[in-house]
Amino acid sequence: xxxxxxxxxxxxxxxxxxxxxxxxxxxxxxxxxxxxxxxxxxxxxxxxxxxxxxxxxxxxxxxxxxxxxxxxxxxxxxxxxxxxxxxxxxxxxxxxxxxxxxxxxxxxxxxxxxxxxxxxxxxxxxxxxxxxxxxxxxxxxxxxxxxxxxxxxxxxxxxxxxxxxxxxxxxxxxxxxxxxxxxxxxxxxxxxxxxxxxxxxxxxxxxxxxxxxxxxxxxxxxxxxxxxxxxxxxxxxxxxxxxxxxxxxx
Length: 250
Fold this sequence. Notes:
Elements: H1 2-19, E1 71-78, E2 91-95, H2 105-121, E3 135-147, E4 156-165, E5 168-177, E6 186-197, E7 203-214, H3 222-233, E8 241-243
Parallel strand pairs: 1-8, 2-3
Antiparallel strand pairs: 1-7, 3-6, 4-5, 6-7
């Protein structure tokens, strides 16, 4: 980088010395560049005096995507006597391992653990089994790419420009150095959960929560994403929008 800066400086100085015409000496305090005392005149716009010869390249816009880290939730609760049992009794946890709907290994365990913790906080017993009845919490997770990863790029770029004035000409080079790494893909993670009455098979409550995070972001490991989604999904449980009601008449 030091070699590049030295080369650019040498190019500008050499070009100015070679093409600048000889100037007539003038008496007094007046500057040879024009004007009276102090005599700076309009030299700020003169390429030979360091004036603009080209527009520098602006840095890449690194504004964070407004979707990153934001959680969105939708929840629905059924009407009927069975719904009165929400948050009570024994509940079992089952995960949907359908193709394209789940993640393997430790990632899957993180989401199951987060749901179990949320259910316990909602008042359920997750430690025992009820072969004759009770409820079951069915969950699944899905992911999709919201924004593809950025392509690799050269960290150094630039543009050249020639400036000409009545006192000569100069060559300028604007260099932009961008050491930021290309962004990874923005991934949307969705956690769906529904609670079913085992005896009747009726869905008592269901909802989903989504969040957008950068792939491989150390700030968003799977256990944190899982906890964030589960906590938001069961916040105020069994609070939800009612379903199964007739639409109001206008």
